[in-house]
Amino acid sequence: MAAVRSVNDFSRSHSGIVPHSCPAFSNQTPMTRFGKILVVLIAVASLAFAGFAIVVFQGGPNWPQIASDMTDYKFTYVPGEKPVWTVVLARGDEQIASDPNLAKCIDLALADRSKRLETEIKDFQDRKSPLEVELASLQGGIKVDVPALDSYILGERKRLADLNTQWDTLNKQSLTLTGQAQDAENLTADRRSEVFQLTVQLSEVRADAFRLEALKRQISEELEQVNGNLERAEERRRQLEYNPPAEQ
After folding, report:
1. Any domain includes 247
2. What is the pLDDT of residue 112?
3. Distance CA 65, CA 109 (A)
4. Structural domain tally of the chain?
5. Among 98, 97, 10, which Cα is nearest to 54's?
6. Bridge-partner residues for 87, per DSSP?
7. Residue 66 covered by a domain
8. In sequence order, which residues have a C-beta less than 8 Å from that of residue 4 and are 6 or more positions away?
9. 10 plus 126 within the same structural domain
């Protein structure tokens, strides 16, 4: 009877925790919904234990079976001149009770379970408000981040366009100088008398062409860097667009 009373008291102590209206969850933050769901699950578990105890009592209490079903506790019979039952937590071996009466040990274990569940609920409620504040701050940061990314993408696109223009100009100059170098080589073959002068001119043209090629490589590397930055920024923007923050 003691165990049955304890389970009934346990269920009554948690029956008021269940939310009045499930549709209200849609207007809550994810943390609030999770907290209410956790409370509902705990209340349902409490009622399940109460119903289980009532059914067992109506058929005749089978205390060893009840103790065996409480897997979060370990019940041990200690024989001797004054035999007793001991109950400890299954994890950590913290002793909960010791009594010759197994039913009383079960009752105390149920009371301990109720107390621990209430402590978990209180701990969650204490942590919920700071987490909601942090979540709101993160969501605000995301809202600010999107316009900043848009501005950054526009700037990188303009920079890319400018670099493309420079690339086209340098490429045309390079082609012109390459043609001049070829012309100089042809003149060298045709005019042996001007070999020395044209050789000097050819060296200068080739030096200019070499410098232009180096400059082209530098701009090409900058183009690759800008393209990479632009792709990452656009990918970040797409992620923010397709994964908007949860509604408050």
Report:
1. no
2. 94
3. 14
4. 2
5. 10
6. 75, 97
7. yes
8. 53, 54, 57
9. yes
Query: Tokens 């549709």 map to which residue?
Result: 23
Q: Is the pLDDT of residue 193 over 80?
A: no
Q: How far is CA 91 from CA 29, 71, 72, 88, 94, in A?
A: 33, 10, 7, 8, 8
Name the pTM for this structure: 0.35
Residues 22 and 102 in one domain: yes
105 & 183 share domain: no
Same domain, 101 and 163: no
Q: pLDDT category, 21, cuts 50, 70, 90? A: very low
Are residues 117 and 190 both part of a single domain? no
In this structure, the answer to whether residues 148 and 224 fall within a common structural domain is yes
Beta strands per DSSP E along 30-138: 73-78, 84-89, 95-99
Residue where a domain terminates, one of 90, 122, 137: 137
d(CA 131, CA 35): 12
> What are the distances in angstroms from CA 138 to CA 27, 145, 223, 241, 243?
19, 10, 33, 16, 14
Q: Do 219 and 170 touch, CB atoms closer than 8 A?
A: yes
Residue 98 CA to its chain's centroid (Å): 45
Domain check: are 31 and 106 in the same one?
Answer: yes
47-82 per-residue burial string, b: 16 or more CB within 10 A, e: under 16: bebbeebeebbeeebebeebbeebeebbbeeeeeee
1 has a pLDDT exceeding 50: no
Same-domain pairing of 129 and 148:
no
The length of the chain is 248
> 124 — alpha (psi -120 to 50), left (phi > 0) or beta?
alpha
- Cβ-based neighbours of 136, under 8 Å, separated by 6 or more: 248
Range of the domain at 169: 143-242
